């Protein structure tokens, strides 16, 4: 048996009832959940905290040791360089100095002569060049040995040095030949100085093996000025010296007097 279902005529049917709209989300909730057109959230980005700067890294003890080694190496190299420069200066001085007489050799004297002429050209100065040759050195060497000849040369250099000024230069050109660079001398004064040098050397006396020996010297002069040339001046003085030597040939080659 089917019982009839009573329908309340006052209560509307569910199919006919209007749908309620959902509640609108709050503004804050919508702002958090809202998406942008690019798909990113509009929520405020989190603020990043800045990390503190790391303290400078201290060098390890091994690095300190390496730096100390480098500094020590640099100091050592500088000391070696300074010593090498000092040694070079010594060798240059030796190369320009006569080892026996301790005066400029030919190289050293030619360098001094070139400097002097350059000075004369700049400041219009003048001077004189004297080339002097020992007359009887070879017989002394042959009779008494080279040690005796060395003593004669040393005595001659000492005599020449006493006869000139500190600003003048005495050099050995080689063997028994010497040269003197004299400042501010006229031709007359230069020739007088050459004669005085000859006389001073002629008066030297030496004793070897119980015998007294004298030497001698011949000198030639060349004037120096702004227009001089070092090589040419040496040639002129050397030629004048040989002329003078020819005039002295009448003198005894060597005089031996019994003690």
The ordered string of helix (H) and strand (E) elements is HHHEHHEEHEEEHE
Q: What characterizes the major β-sheet?
A: 4 strands, antiparallel
The DSSP helix count reads: 7
Estimate the strand proportion: 15-25%
Radius of gyration in whole Å, from Cα?
A: 55 Å
Let me know the CATH homologous superfamily of the domain at 106-250.
Reverse transcriptase/Diguanylate cyclase domain
CATH topology of the domain at 106-250: Alpha-Beta Plaits
The CATH architecture term of the domain at 106-250 is 2-Layer Sandwich
Helix content: 40-55%
Number of strands: 7
Average of the residue pLDDT scores: 83
Oligomeric state of this protein? single chain
Instruction: Please report the first level of CATH classification, the CATH class of the domain at 106-250.
Output: Alpha Beta
Molecular shape: elongated
Uncertain parts: 35-39
Tag the structure with descriptive keywords:
four-stranded antiparallel β-sheet; EC 2.7.7.65; single chain; elongated; diguanylate cyclase activity; diguanylate cyclase; Rev_trsase/Diguanyl_cyclase; 259 residues; Nucleotide_cyclase; alpha+beta; Alpha-Beta Plaits; 7 helices; three-stranded antiparallel β-sheet
């Amino acid at each position: 048996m089917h019982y009839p279902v009573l329908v309340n005529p006052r209560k509307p049917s569910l199919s006919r009832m209007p749908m309620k709209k959902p509640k609108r989300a709050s503004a804050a909730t919508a702002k958090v959940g809202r998406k942008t057109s690019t798909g990113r959230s509009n929520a405020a980005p989190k603020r990043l905290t800045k990390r503190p700067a790391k303290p400078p890294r201290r060098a390890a003890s091994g690095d300190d040791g390496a730096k100390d080694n480098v500094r020590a190496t640099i100091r050592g190299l500088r000391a070696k360089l300074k010593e090498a420069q000092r040694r070079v200066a010594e060798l240059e001085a030796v190369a320009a100095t006569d080892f026996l007489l301790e005066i400029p050799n030919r190289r050293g004297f030619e360098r001094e002569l070139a400097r002097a002429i350059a000075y004369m050209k700049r400041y219009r100065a003048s001077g004189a060049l004297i080339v002097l040759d020992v007359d009887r050195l070879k017989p002394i060497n042959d009779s008494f040995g080279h040690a005796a000849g060395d003593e004669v040369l040393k005595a001659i250099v000492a005599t020449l040095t006493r006869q000139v000024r500190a600003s003048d230069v005495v050099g050995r050109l080689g063997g028994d030949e010497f040269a003197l660079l004299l400042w501010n001398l006229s031709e007359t004064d230069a020739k007088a100085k050459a004669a005085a040098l000859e006389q001073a050397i002629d008066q030297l006396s030496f004793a070897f093996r119980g015998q007294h020996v004298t030497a001698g010297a011949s000198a030639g002069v060349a004037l120096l000025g702004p227009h001089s040339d070092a090589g040419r001046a040496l040639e002129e003085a050397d030629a004048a010296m040989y002329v003078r030597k020819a005039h002295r040939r009448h003198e005894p080659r060597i005089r031996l007097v019994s003690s």
